[in-house]
Amino acid sequence: MFQFCLLSGPAASESSAPRHRKFRACFGEEGTPDEGVAAPEGTLVIWGGATSVGMAAVQFARAARVSSIIAIASSKRHEYLKILGATQSFDYNDTDVIEKVKSALQSTSGTIWAFDALGSPESQVLLKKAIPQHDRTVLASVLLGGDPEYKAIMGARRFDVEFELPGGQKVVWPKDMAAADRHWRGFRWAVENYGAPGGYVPAPVRVFEGSGEDAIKEVYNVKNMSTFGKLVLKHPLK
């Protein structure tokens, strides 16, 4: 079974340690693609497919041989997402996007994995509306403390993890060594195939050079998910 194990920070770097924290791949108990096991049956649908986490999810799903991967993102990113492994893409700006995604999912055989990679209350609501009635559905999100029907995502499973959110809500992930092993297998796949043909493609990087004031604006643009790829600030700022 393909499993969600993705964790995001909006402006994390692409070095190996932050990347390991930033997103995880779980290939399920069947293992990584080269182990000669059956591919998982179902469709992965990602709201926020062109975010750094969304693009990682597309690629890990492709590596895990998920045959149907739907990305919901700006139409400007659809061709790029197809290169990464998305089999269908829909524009979240389309007034009929909910019905189009729902229609595409109607024929799903197996599990529908619905992943909110944008991480906002609004994206959780919209993604849930796009999921038709189905026997096996899994909802997951990078947002902590959102809709309780969504599984909150955590990559560090070699030890107990507990967060207390504003308002006193506690989010707990108990230690799970089997999940931790799957995380590391996925991470090793990304490292060993980093930049290789058919391997893991890092998120596009944009280098900003300018004033400190404008740099702060750029960082806020990243926070608000209004840019594509990663932002790097070139120092010294003017």
TrEMBL record:
It holds the Pfam family ADH_zinc_N. The keyword Oxidoreductase applies. Residues 53-124 form the Alcohol dehydrogenase-like C-terminal domain. Keywords: Oxidoreductase. One of its GO terms (molecular function) is oxidoreductase activity, acting on NAD(P)H. The keyword Oxidoreductase applies. This is Alcohol dehydrogenase-like C-terminal domain-containing protein. It comes from Fusarium odoratissimum (strain NRRL 54006).
